[in-house]
């Protein structure tokens, strides 16, 4: 199967079932035609999302350079559709890019993907939040999603341009350190003692995730006395 973009998805501001005083853009919908992908800049004072027209509700925890674009596998949406016994349309998990034939969850931190004229670099795993839980309306959703361990990948924009459904996805640089998105997910959820292992990614560890590792190390040092 050829790796391709099934859909490019953006969200508009809607009521947030988890936080009434803060709208959310988690319910994303496919866009017909090309969508501009850009470097959004910092979370504070930046553009929020890396996709033009995509709304970010909580700029403290979402969007910005290291979370400019969120990619998720269509095959994984199909898994959850079967598990939950309902349709899971593209964009339902808040992803900007729904991909098929591409091992999103096998990506390594620092991998570089080409989609048309756009270059994207893998930065982190998606850590599920309360808004995601509320939008899914599934009892025990965060636990089930975490146990599954296939989070999708956040990406930064190296070269801007436009993307659209149907474009091929190409892996143009494979990081050699072996630290994967799945490792980052486990270290930030179920196996937090493994956070220091993420430092093996070296320069491929994005600034945001590096700060989290350093915070975890300081907390561990305080606990050990």
UniProtKB/TrEMBL annotation:
Gene3D superfamilies noted in UniProt: PK beta-barrel domain-like
Stretch list, region Disordered: 1-49
GO molecular function: catalytic activity; molybdenum ion binding; pyridoxal phosphate binding
Biased composition (Basic residues): 19-28
Domain of life of the native organism: Bacteria
Domain MOSC: 29-172
PANTHER family xrefs: PROTEIN YIIM
Protein's recorded name: Molybdenum cofactor biosysynthesis protein
Organism name: Kocuria rosea subsp. polaris
């Amino acid at each position: 199967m050829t790796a391709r973009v099934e859909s490019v998805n953006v969200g508009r501001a809607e009521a947030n079932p988890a936080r009434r005083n803060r709208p959310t853009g988690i319910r994303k919908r496919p866009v017909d035609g090309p969508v501009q992908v850009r470097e959004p800049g910092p979370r504070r004072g930046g553009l929020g999302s890396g996709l033009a027209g995509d709304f970010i509700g909580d700029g403290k925890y979402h969007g910005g350079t290291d979370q400019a674009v969120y990619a998720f596998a269509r095959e994984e949406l199909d898994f959850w559709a079967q598990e939950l016994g309902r349709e899971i349309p593209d964009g339902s998990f808040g992803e900007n890019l729904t991909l098929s034939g591409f091992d999103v969850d096998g990506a390594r931190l620092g991998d570089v993907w080409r989609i048309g004229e756009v270059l994207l670099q893998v930065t982190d795993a998606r850590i599920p939040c309360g808004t995601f839980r509320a939008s899914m309306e599934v009892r025990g959703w965060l636990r089930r999603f975490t146990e599954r361990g296939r989070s999708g990948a956040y990406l930064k924009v190296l070269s801007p341009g436009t993307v659209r459904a149907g474009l091929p996805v190409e892996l143009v640089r494979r990081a050699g350190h072996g630290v994967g998105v799945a490792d980052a997910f486990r270290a930030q959820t179920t196996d937090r003692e493994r956070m220091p292992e993420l430092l093996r990614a070296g320069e491929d560890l994005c600034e945001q995730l590096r700060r989290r590792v350093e915070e975890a190390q300081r907390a561990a040092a305080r606990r050990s006395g």
